[in-house]
Design brief:
Length: 112
């Protein structure tokens, strides 16, 4: 089984790969005692997922390729819609809504 450090490192690396594929700049953001993987729109809206090593670690096995599949699936799922850690939809500007809509279409096309 992977250590917490290895899980975190692989989550961040897989997030970086996904960001490169969709042409976005990802951020590792700290809010209080929690860390988030974030993509920020031009007008400041954010799509975020909490970097939750315990949650993702509970889904992993000894199979490395399967583990990367699980991690990428979780990242795409969390960034593909406005989760609780993201800027609320009604607070987004029209430009940010369009930006995230385009990003969602790119995320759907990512092969995991």
């Amino acid at each position: 089984m992977w250590s917490d450090y290895r899980i975190k490192e692989n989550i961040i690396n897989d997030f970086a790969v996904i960001c490169k594929i969709i042409g976005e700049q990802g951020l590792l953001e700290r809010r209080g005692d929690r860390e988030y993987l974030t993509i920020q729109a031009p007008n400041g809206g954010k799509r975020s997922m909490e970097l939750d090593v315990i949650l993702i670690g509970s889904m992993l096995t000894d199979d490395t390729s399967y583990n990367h599949f699980v991690i990428k699936r979780q990242i795409i799922g969390d960034l593909g819609y406005a989760s609780l850690d993201s800027t609320p939809f009604l607070e987004l500007t029209d430009n940010d809504r369009e930006y995230f809509s385009r990003m969602e279409r790119k995320l759907i096309q990512v092969r995991i």
